[in-house]
Amino acid sequence: MNTAQHIQDTIKLHNGVDMPWLGLGVFQVEEGSELVNAVASAVRHGYRSIDTAAIYANEKSVGEGIRQALSENDITRESLFVTSKVWNADLGYEPTLAAYEASLDKLGLDYLDLFLIHWPVEGKYKEAWRALERLYRDGRVRAIGVSNFHVRHLEDLMQDAEIMPMVNQVELHPRLAQHELRRFCSEHGIRLEAWSPLMQGQLLQNPTIGEIASHYGKSAAQIILRWDLQHGVITIPKSTKAHRIAENASVFDFQLTSDDMERIDALNRNERVGPDPDNFDF
Question: Could you tell me the CA-to-CA distances from 42 to 25, 50, 101, 236 in Å, in that order?
């Protein structure tokens, strides 16, 4: 069970790098002042992890938000954990190296804390992984990993990889509990990270979660995020609203009982809101 007691508590990746348990996701948030303010607000509320991607087309505003946060708060760049991802069109050795530089340029940063392969495009992700290994060995990035990889993709990658992935970021929520993947990643020292932890809001009206939320005096979102953490899953809920950003951070002052965890576990239907990596039109 996760024992994190504070929003800035971290989990150690297998290379010794500390990654925050909770971060801000910015998927489908457009460039502009709303995103700049959301990033700055998140840092102000204690967040230290920000997750973006090249395909989100918002890295410039994320970088501006980071710089605003650094100017407003008594913190350093080294206290933040910034993630981005290489898109499918840029998979390959040289293209991935170039994509990394492009992301840094848009973000206005000297390095990333975590760089991920966004999707497991068959025939391309191994060369991309070689590029990530080079970036890691050269000290250009603190940790490397993948996103949306099933067990079979991980097994295939690991056959030739010299450095094992440190993180696998996937769709994960009570309707898609990812039991097999969770076991595999745990056995191989790969930290699992949940995107769309609230199932794009579809679980917020679930009666079981609502009943548990009422018992704890918490919101449905807080219950789901706590469920993630207690299963040892890093999570990055998305919001641009300051009060939601603050609410999502308030999940470290209570613990769900084993009975409540089991009730939420029972909601699993292996149901996705995003593409299945096995059937995604890359």
Answer: 10, 9, 26, 12
For the cut 70, the answer to whether the pLDDT of residue 26 exceeds it is yes
DSSP assignment of 109-129 equals -S-BSEEEE-S--TTTHHHHH
Is residue 56 among the annotated active site residues? yes
| Cβ proximity of 134 and 97 under 8 Å | yes
Model confidence at 1: pLDDT above 70: no
Instruction: Give the active site residue among 47, 56, 125, 136.
Output: 56
Assessment of whether the complete model's pTM goes beyond 0.90: yes
Q: pLDDT value at position 115?
A: 99
pLDDT band at 279 (very low <50, low <70, confident <90, very high): confident
What class, spelled out in words, does domain 10-265 have in CATH? alpha beta
